[in-house]
Amino acid sequence: MSGVAALLRPPTHGLRLWYAVLSGIALWMAHVLIVTSLARIRCSEGWVDWILHGSTVVLGIGTLVGMVWSWQLWRQHADAVEDAPDATSRWMFLGLFGFLTQAISLLVIVWEGLYVPFLRSCGA
Questions:
Q1: Cβ partners under 8 Å of residue 104, min gap 6
Q2: How many CA atoms lie within 13 A of 75 on its CB side?
């Protein structure tokens, strides 16, 4: 199986599974760190705006990747019985949990990115 085809399949184990479930939270925290760290020097350095906007785009795309993988995992196992003690129901739960946390994280990342042009100037 080619590398692209493998990436398009729903994750069921390993790093891709945990990326699909937890990356939104980590990427959102990285975005908060970048925006808050660079907000003070934004006034004196014009190039900082590009880093702030670029971080919003890059981290948003990373969150979208995890969101797609979570959705694939959830949809692949959507017919599972929720309270069954098997791997299929666990994957369904992880897919749904990952999808919801990725969606919320993406909304917050975009919201913070839209806030960048409205950051108060240093002299004002």
A1: 24
A2: 9
Helix (H, G, I), strand (E, B) or coil at 106: helix
* pLDDT value of residue 98: 93
Residues 72 and 48 sit within 8 Å (Cβ to Cβ): no
Q: Which ranges of 39-86 would DSSP assign to H, the alpha helix?
A: 48-76
pTM above 0.70, yes or no: yes
Residue 37 identity: S
Which of 124, 119, 108, 102 shows the shortest CA–CA distance to 37?
A: 119
* pLDDT in the model for residue 123: 56
The contacts of residue 69 (CB under 8 Å, 6+ apart) are 10, 11, 16, 19, 20, 98
Q: Which two tokens stand for residue 20?
A: 């699909």
Whether 11 contacts 17, CB under 8 Å: yes
d(CA 89, CA 86): 6
